[in-house]
Specification:
This protein is mainly alpha-helical. It is 49% helix and 5% strand.
Length: 503
Amino acid sequence: MTGRTILILGDQLSPQLAALRGANRAADRVLMAEVMAEADYVPHHRKKLAFVFSAMRHFAQDLREAGWQVDYVRLDDPANTGTLGGELRRAMARHGHERAVATEPGEWRLLQAMRGWPGLEILPDDRFLADRHGFAAWAEGRKGLRMEHFYRLMRRKTGLLMDGGEPAGGRWNFDAENRSRADPDLAMPSPPRFAPDAITREVLDMVAARFPDRFGTLEPFWFAVTRTDAEAAFAHFLRHALPRFGTYQDAMLAGQPFLFHAVVSTYLNAGLLDPLAMCRAVEAEWRAGRAALNSAEGFIRQIIGWREFVRGIYWWRMPGYDRVNALDAHRPLPEFYWSGETDLACLRACITQTRDEAYAHHIQRLMVTGNFALLAGIDPHALHEWYLAVYADAYEWVELPNTVGMSQFADGGLLASKPYAASGAYIDRMSDYCRTCTYDVKAKAGPRACPFNLLYWHFVARHRERLARNPRMAQAVRTWERFAPDRQDQLRRDSERFLAGLA
């Protein structure tokens, strides 16, 4: 029996991958390839490129040690065709294979391309807890989709944090207990840092040479690039950060990018960590009395709730979901999203952190960079491409719904029950950014007024007909309508003056 070529993608670094199960290690040949088409379709952060390439090379090494035959094509290989399809054809011809197998990719554009590659069988990606076709069947015909309903199904399916048929602690959701502001004097653990080995060092040199002008600081580079180190990073979170994760998961502090966050989504989304095993470990910490229930529930909800939910939305609504624009927002993405050069201290802090770490936690993304884009009417597709490019954990299946659906409300409420719009008061309540800002977060009008304050009311005014029909936003519309006409005019003038200065 002739062998097959087994194609493994850069975010499929799992030994339990469907394409590897049942394979013949003697006859089949694994193919992994670094190609410019995947490095270039958005201008990926240099740390993201270095992480993916190094993790791929280490995984290929692990496969060889486990007895697999592996073809690995480096980006700087002179014979590299630049595309995955080209490398698959080349590998099949090299080994005389007529058949190939792959696990379905996480992005719709790549799946469409792969369906046209001769001889390729595509298997479902069963590393996720919810089948995407089953999700579509659940979603069809519903008037509205809410993560909370889906999350409860997943809790029952997995048994996580369940006491018999009831949720542990008598409640499904402890989000109200996870919104405390953090004190800069708190003793906060830092995620473990892993020194680059020879393989990673070679990758760093290649990325520095081939992508000198890409966004993002390349070094210091400290990511885990192996399963062993990724598991060590998660174990560190369990011991040192999980006990306070829930309480402070929405907090933001200048100069403290990580607080009590796990900082392992990059490893999880590349396949180096198993989502159910992570959740079981978190549950065990709570049951052993080493972590509070609000921390355990908050973490597990992010994994089996949001992560699985947004993947279901993505595959259910593609193609076309990347182009939705219900709020008719078309302003270009401001240049400071790439430079970090802005007088708004919160945006400067989050973008600078993103440049240096290829990381920002969910509130920094949702309520600072995302909130600003929503209020200012930034094109959601431009923002989507920015998020996809700049974060090391960003793959389209997880990033796109979070951006256009939750952050920008561009799907008109399919994913989120309200636009996540907020004035400067929210940022001041959850962070210390406003203390050093050029603008005054307490000022409601005038040249020194916080732009978030101005733009919040500008947003409410220009979308008041839609927002008046939303139970969670109707009060804001009524408040706007009670403003005196001269105050409304002043807010419009101040907002439009600020927006005219965006470049």
